[in-house]
């Protein structure tokens, strides 16, 4: 049976048959919330999946694509604007729109997102947080910014007291593939061949497990993902040079987007993540972001935040459709 009244969307086919669902269960409710979205084609495809579109429609939420070739003020009306586009021009469009349409909720304000465009500033926010002693300890890796001539890196690394191996990332996060590259340097002299500006972070053995903490408003969802394996002193003594990974998310020895078996590693305490998410939510002024967290190998409560991403790949998050649509409904109820 075909779904009636599909929402127009270039990447979604709502004409597919849905097994085990009766027509009375999928009758769309009257539209109450209109969400205008401005996303890249890749983000649109990964986020606005058919299941999310159907569930949203049944809850009275309609997603409408924003036409970037037309003035935003001539489109809508919108209740919410959802966006993830890079560039100063788009930021100015959103900021101008906010000034004249204060009744519209923008997810999220460009000036708040800007904090996550720089890998140094994003983690400094975490470094300033304080936690009760019984919650565990949250830190950031020792890091060093190389903004100009990379040939000075060996001396800078020595002065900063950093030890190899070092994780190397581009300093600026602009949404391009290049900004998501990652290098692992086994000796500091090989770093002189890299292109600045970059940020160096000390590598921390963490059992090859990364915790991706997805945050949507006040909701938190944690999944385990594979990460770089631990390195022993014996292994390091035999290694040199710089190893390149195309993307930070592909840094695992065996890339797997599925949640790892719970027996692999115990999740961080939920109360610790609640405090961390709440504090960053207020300090960053963001509703949609995720944290990449690792636990130092051999410890029970020493955690490091190694990256923060705005509007991450929620399509890979279990049950994101229900969490996200409920979040949108709550936003509007709270506003009213």
From TrEMBL:
Classification via InterPro entries: Inositol_tetrakis-P_1-kinase (IPR008656), InsP(3)kin_ATP-grasp (IPR040464), ITPK1_N (IPR041429)
Domain Inositol 1,3,4-trisphosphate 5/6-kinase ATP-grasp residue range list: 134-329
Known EC number(s)?
2.7.1.134
Cofactor binding comment, as recorded: Binds 2 magnesium ions per subunit.
Keywords assigned by UniProt, alphabetized: ATP-binding, Kinase, Magnesium, Metal-binding, Nucleotide-binding, Transferase
Residues that bind Mg(2+) 1 = 292, 307
Question: What's an example Gene Ontology biological process for this entry?
Answer: inositol trisphosphate metabolic process
The protein in question is named Inositol-tetrakisphosphate 1-kinase
- Organism, as annotated: Erythranthe guttata (Yellow monkey flower)
